[in-house]
Request: fold
Amino acid sequence: MIRALAYTAGKTQAVADEEIAAAIAGRARNGFLWVHLEGERGSPLLEELPVELPPTVERALTATETRPRCEPFETGVLVNLRAPPTEGNQPGHDPLMSVRLWAEKGLLLSVAFRPSPVISDAETQFAAGALIDPGDVIIAIASAAAERLDEDVAALGDRLDDIECTVDQSTPFSERREVTALRTRAIGLRRFIVPQRLALERLASLPLDWLDDEERAKVREAADQFARMGEELESVRERAAVIHEELTDLRSERIDARSLQIAIVALIFLPLTFVTGLLGMNVEGIPYAGEPWAFWGVVAFCVLIAAGVAGWFAWRRWSDR
Reply:
């Protein structure tokens, strides 16, 4: 899918598919044009556009695997950002989708293989006339991504706080799995958020004529948001590792306590097993074998032995260890 928006003489309007090539060719006199390619068909559609792009930029705009970065060229600048997708985190996909941008004076090309609410928000602002150059669109995308990701990062930290408050309750096994999932999520987000901060900082430092001082300040502000989120994710990762170790220790302690209880029961029955085995031998000469009270006498003797052993364990407080 291909969409194009043009800003000309203070007005914003959509550009029909058949008029995109002409709009790109006449962008010098028409103001600012934003062309967005979305979906797996973005690669062949990019080749149909009448734009001279360096080979490195063409490969970067259509690459399957990307990372946030900012690379200046003679005719423009390549910016790769990451944003949350519309459909959420899908199995087999990275937690954040890639938004590839090529910006030059009067033109912005963007490529995304999946839809994102960040792009929709920027298009809404563009249609309202709030974005009038490539810097405005890049700032809108970066700021919207930061705002949405900030909620996810805060949710990770809040959930970890809840687990920390209940770590010594009776559910260490399920919480251990949840902590692992939170730590995995934090690692996946931090993998893209940290380089995104560096990319935005580099963009703010480039001498671009379509990026004024106010826009540079906004880019630095977005970079600062990603820096803060990166620090929070690092904290979540470290706290999750500590909680995971604590839950593992708690699990080991419970297993040890149960093993001790089983050992105590086995030690109580050990002398009883000896007595019953000794009296149960099929040989002549077992004392009191013919007495009617012998069975109950043996039972009472076993009860006394069991009570004595259990009392000794209680006196030594073995069951409390």
About this structure: The two ends are 67 Å apart (CA to CA). The beta strands are 2-8, 11-14, 32-38, 69-72, 77-83, 97-104, 107-112. The chain has two domains: 2-250, 255-320. The first strand starts at residue 2 and ends at 8.
